[in-house]
Amino acid sequence: KVISCLALNFCLSGHSILIAESSDSSGYRPKPIPEMQALPLPHDEVSIQNKGTELLRFHFGNELRRPFIYPVNGPSGLSLTRLGHPHDPHGHSHHNSVWISHHMINEIDFWGDRGENKGRIVHQKVDSLEDSDIHAGVVSSSLWKDPEDQVVFKERRRIVAEARPERQYLMIIDLKLEAVLPEVTIRKTPFGMIGVRMAKSIGVNDGGGRIINSNGQINEEETFWKSARWVDYSGQIASGVVEGLTLMDHPKNPNHPSVFHIRNDGWMGACLTFDGDRILKKGESIQLRYGIYVHSNLLTPAEMEIEWVQFGKTKPFAFR
User: pTM above 0.85?
Assistant: First the structure.
């Protein structure tokens, strides 16, 4: 309703108050606000939030040796991951919560932080940010460089969080690596492409947590270097609060079902080249898709399998 311009004087405790009403309020047309948002922050970070509550944060500053995701907050609001090994923070400083990297590419070590012949994954730009009621995410471009600053890979990466009931969510990481050199060899190793360092209290050794994979195998003794569709690491994040992460390998990945590198000290990763080298010629690419289900409680294998089946039906992201 359009209201004609009015200027009304009211007397309140001896004071005159002027109230002006707009002649036309039709210019105000509020649109729905997405429940899931990707918010850029200072210091080269993007926070992915659900209704204003942070789920995870992507760090990509050029001073870093590699981009990474921290925190990865559970339904309780506490991070289920950490930076570094709880008993060897210096030697395992490269354990950056959730990260993408590889131990040996053309004799270049992109995995560790120290020593000779170390490579770096150098962020170039944020390509896009995605907001919606269902998911939020970020698409980025990076370069994998050797110690002489020569580019080995061009990288495209997409990180999204999809809302699930009761403050749970699914994180999806899509990765595309294009060879820039005449030949790029991704060497045989159990380290890479994705790593997860769990919070200390969730670890089997420090907190009495539990590891289980899609084969029903339990803890490091049974899951170490075994192929699986998924591996779940769960435990207490606070007194009486049990949460966990399920790392899932997508069926379209070239080595599915992946071998998983698992430790009772709070580490898990999916191995791309456990069984042998992968060689890419210039212009050829490899694309990978991983899911991390962030959940409450100690889930049953059947519950985690349902989540993996849903994830397995999704299509890898089509980078432009």
Answer: yes
SS3 content of the chain, % helix, strand, coil (to 5): 10, 50, 40
Q: How many residues does the chain have?
A: 320
Helix (H) or strand (E) holding 112: none
**pLDDT tens digit string along 281-311?**
999 999 999 999 999 999 999 999 999 999 9
Share of the chain above pLDDT 90, in %: 91
Average pLDDT over residues 39-67: 98
CA distance 61 to 82: 18
Indicate the number of domains in the chain. 1
- Domain annotation covers residue 92: yes
- Report the pLDDT value the prediction gives residue 26, as an integer from 0 to 100: 86
28 domain residue, yes or no: no
Domain that holds residue 160: 36-312
Please indicate, yes or no, if residue 23 is contained in any of the structural domains: no
Question: For the range 215-222, what are the long-range contacts, defined as Cβ-Cβ under 8 Å and sequence gap of 24 or more?
Answer: 216/301, 219/264, 220/262, 220/263, 220/264
Alpha carbons 241 and 206: distance in angstroms, whole number:
16
Is 71 a domain residue? yes
- List the one residue out of 278, 35, 264, 40 whose CA is nearest residue 169: 35
**Sign, CA torsion 229/248/260/218:** negative
Residue 152 in tokens: 């080995």
First to last CA, the chain: 46
Looking up residue 260, the CATH number of its domain turns out to be: 2.70.98
